[in-house]
Batch of 2 targets.
Target 1
Amino acid sequence: MAETSGKAASPTEESVRTRMAEAGISAPDECVPGVCANLIVLQDHVATLRAFALDPRSASAMRFEA
Amino acid sequence: MSVLSAIAMAARVRGGQVGAVQLCEAAFARAEALGGERSGFTRLLRRRALARAAAVDKLVEAGLDPGPLAGVPFGVADLFDVAGEITTAGSRTRRSAAFASRDARAIALLEAAGAVLIGTQNMDEFGYGFVTMNAGYGTTRNPHDPSRVAGGAAGGSAVAVATGVVPISLAFDTNGSLRVPAGLCGVIGLKPTYGDLPRDGMYPFVDSLDVVGALGRDLDDLALVRTILREGAPERQEPLRGEISFGRLMSWFDDNIAEEMRGPLDAFWARLGRVSFELPHSEIARAAASVIIAAEGASLHRPALEADPMQFEPPVRDRLLAGLLLPSDDYLAAQRFRNWIQARLRRQFELADVLFTPAAPGFAPTIADPVMTFEGRPIPARSHLGIYTQPISLMGLPALVLPLAGDFAMPLGIQLISAAGHEPLLFRAARQLIDKGLCAVPVPPGD
C-alpha cells in the first residue's frame, strides 16, 4: 500500500504551465503568475481540508441542501 | 433621498396619494443625478418601467388592488434575466449573449405583487469578488465615503437602496455576496436558507451555494419580499416562540476583527448578555467553501476560458483558471465536509436561537488600496472580505445583516444567523434589536 502524506507540493509557474496543458487549457503566459498565486491559495485551503480526516463514508458529497 | 419604505410607498399608491409613474420618475431622476458609480445602476429600463407603472396606476384608478408592492420601484443585480435584455452577470464575456426570453422568476413574482423593475445593478464579474470593482461596468462607490468600496459582489444592489434610489433590490448570495455590501453600505440584507427562494432565471455561479436574496432599508419590506418570493410555501420549521436567546460566535469569527469594529461589537454583545459560543471547524468550512466555489465556478466558465481567457478580468480569470486545476477529490471532500458539518450544526441551535458575527471585519477598504488585514498581513479585500460570511454559506444557513446603531465614521454590519428554515425567527430577532436601538440604518452624508 502506498504511503501518502496528503501534503501537495507547492505549485510553481512551470508546474502550472504543465498542468494547464494537461488540462487542455491554452492561456497566454501572462496569466501564469496570477494562476500560480491563486493555486497556492487554493492549495492552502485544500491542506486545511485534508488535515481534517473525515471518513469518506461519513457523509454524502452529492446532497445539496441546508 | 426618499426615506419611505416599500410598504409605505405601496400604501400611498393604493390610496391614490401618489402615482406609480411619479415614483418611477423620481427613482430615475435620483439614479441619473447620482450617476452609475454612485447609484449602483448599470442600466435604467425607462420604457419598460414606465409602461408597467402606468398599468399599476390604471388598476388603482379602476378601484382594483395592484398588490402589496403597488408601484414600488426596485432594481436587480445584473444576473437576473430581464426579458429582452442581455444578462451580463457583470462580465464583458457576455456582451454578445442572447437576449433573455423572459424575466427571472423572482422579478416576475415581485412585479405580480405590483412592484416596478427600473434597472439592473453592478456586481463583481460573475459574482467572484467582494468589492464591486468591475473593469467592464465600473467601480461602485460607497455612499458613506465615495473613496471606499461598496463591497460585493452585489455592491450595486446595496448602494441603490442605501442612496434611496429604490427601497428594495433583488440580489444574490454565494459566499457573502449581498451580506458584505449590506454591512459596508449600512443597509439590511437577507440571505435565505439555501433553496428557500426561486433561482429560475438567475445566472448561476456556484450551484451548490447560490441563493436569491434581497436588500433594503426597512426590515418589514424584506419580510414582505420574502413572503412574496416564497409563493405561499409553508415554513419549513415551526415558529419558535418566547424570548430569543442570542450568542456571539468566537474563534474564527473573533479573529481578524478590525479595531473600529471591536468596540462597537463588544458593546452590542454586552447589551445581549455576553453569551458566546464556538462554532467548531469554521476555518475548515471557509476552506471548503473556497474549494467548492473555485471548482464549480471554473467548470461553469470552462468553455469561455477555453475560447478566450483574455476576455475575463485578470483577477477573475486567474482565479477561475486555478480552479480548473483542482483535483476532483478535493472538491468532493469539500462537499462531503459540507454535509457533515450541516448535520452537526443543528445541535448548536439547541444552545442559542440566534448567533451573531460581524458581517465584515471593519470599515469598507479604500478603492485606491483595497486591502484588509488578515493574520497581521495586508491581503486583497477582493477575495477575503467575506471571511465571516463564507462558513455560513457552506452550512446553508439563513442570515440577516443589520447595521449597528451608533455614530461611526462608516457603517458597521452585524450578521444574525439562525438554524435552517428559521427566517421568521431571524426577522423577529432583528425587530427586537432595532426596537432596542441596537441596530439602525444610517443615512449617507449629504442626504
Target 2
Amino acid sequence: MSSSTIQVTSSNELSVPGSASRLLIQMARRDIATLFRTPWIIISRSLAFIIQLFVFAYLISRLVVSYPNYFGYYAVGAVVSTVASISFIIGYDIFEEAEEGLLDYLLTLPIPRREFIIGRSLGGAVRAMIYTIPMFVIVAVVESFANPISILAALLDLFLIAFGVTGLSITVAVSVRSANRFDVVLALLELAVTRASTALYPFVALPFYVQALAPFSPVSFAADSARQALMKSSLDVLGLAGLAAFVVIFLGLGATFYFRRLEGGVYA
Amino acid sequence: MIGFDKAGKRFGTLDAVKEFSMTIHDEEILGLLGPNGAGKTTLMLMMGTVYRPTSGKISVNGLDVVQHPNDVRKMIGIAFQDPRVDGILGAFDVLNWHLKMTTNLDKVEREDRVEKVLRAVDLWDARNKRTWLMSGGMRKKVEDCKVLAQRPKIAVFDEPTAFLDVPSRLLMWKMIRELRDEGSTVIVATNMMDEAERLSDRVAIVNLGKLVAIDTPEQLKGKTKGGEVLELTVGNGQEFPRECLTQFSEVQDVSQENNKVTVYLSGGRLLLPKIVETLTNRGVKINSVHLKEVTLEDVFLNYTGHKLE
C-alpha cells in the first residue's frame, strides 16, 4: 500500500474543533486582523485626524469665544464620532461576505450561531477601538488627561458606543437586501448618528432641528460622558446607562435579525 | 452514516430538492452526479446546516441536522465549488485559520499540517500570495486543501477538480481516496462522468432535485439495458424506423436525438451486421457506427432522457 500524500503523523485521528468560547475569540480575531492587513489606513486616518485637530479644531476654537476650551470639547467629541463611524464598517463586511458567498463558508464552521454573532460584534467593536486608540492618545497628550480612572471611564464610553454601533450596523446589514439601498441606508444612518449629536458642537449652539434629535443620539451620550470623565473628572452615570441600554437593544436586535436571517430567512 | 429521508428544499416557488431519500455509508466515497442546477450543492449545504430543509429529515451519524446543527457542523468539512477564501489572505493564512476553527491542533501541529498539504499540491512557494491574485486552479486547490488539511469525519467536495489540469486532478483524486482510507466519509459532487466513475465507490444520479439512481458505477452500468451501446449517426432529417430494431430480442431500447441514434443492446458484436443490413434495406443512410460498453453517461441518459451537459 502506498504511503499517504500528506504524512499526518502527529494527529492521525480525524479532527474535531475546540471549545465554543475559543471559536468565538477566533471569529473576533478574524475581524480584528482585517485592520492590520491594511495598516496604511490607520496611518492615513490618524494623519487626517491630526490635521482635523490642529488645523480645523484649532482654528474654530479661536473663533468660538463664548464656549470655554472648545478645542478640548471638539477633540474628545471627534474621537467618539470616529469610533462610531469605524464601528459601522462591520455592516459593510457582513453584507459583502453574504454577496460573495463567504458567509456560506463561515456558516459551515463548527461555531454555534450565538458565539458566531457575538464574535462578529466583539471583533467589530475591538477593531474600532484599536483604530481609534492612537487618536485618543493624541488628544490625551495634547489636553494633558492623566487621571487613570477618567481615562478608563472614557475608554469604557468608547467601547460601549463601538459595541452598540456594531450591533446597529449588523442589524441594518442583515435587514436590507439590496446592495444600493444598503449603502444609502447605512451612510444616512451613520450621518444621523454621528452628526445629529453633541459630539462636535455644544447643544446650545445646535440648530433647533438638530437639538430635537441630539439628546437621543447614543453618540451624544458617549461624547458627553467621555468629556465629563476626562475634563471634569466625574462619572456621567446617566450617560453610561443610556449607552448600556443602546448596546443591549442593538446587540440584541442585531443578533436576533442575524440569527433569523441565518436560520430562518435567506438561508432557510 | 448519513441519511436523507424525503428531504426537500424550496426557495420561493422553486423546489431545489424534492422528496430526496438516500443513505451514505461510513467510509465510502459517494459521487453525486448531476448537471448544474440539479440540486447537488443544495443537498450538501442542507447536510452542512447552512440551509434548513423545508421538508423531510436529514441525519448525520444519528444526529438530526435541524435539532443538533452544532454537533453536525463539528463533523463536516465542505470545499465549495467556487472557492470561498478571504482574497486578501495568502493560502497559508487561509488554511491556518480554517484549522484554528475546525480542529484543536496546537500551533506546531497546525502549521506542520498546512505546510504538508500545501507542499503536496505544489502551492508551498505561493503560500503568501494573496488568493485573489491566484489563478482559478490555484484558488480551487486552496479551497480543496481546507478539507484535506482538516481531515473531518465527513468531507464534502463540490466539483473538486474544476479548473485543475490533468496531473492536479489525478493528485486530488488520490488525496481524496486517502482521506477515505483514513476513515472519512467523502461526498463528491460532480458533473464530470470520469470523475464520478473513477473516484466514487457509489454514484448517486441527481436530476431536477430528485434522486434518480444510486449504486456502484459497475452496478449502474450493469443495470442499464443490455450492457452495450450502439451509437449510430444517420442522415440529417431522416425519419428513423425504430420498430425495425426493436424486433430483435437483444435490443432493449432505442432513442434518437437529432441524427444520433442510441441503441441499448446485449450481444452487440454479433448483432451489429444484422442491424446495419436491416437499416440499409429500409433506406436509412448510416454515416457512422460506434459500438461501446455502457458508460455512466449512457446510464445518465437512460435514467433521465437527456445527456449530462
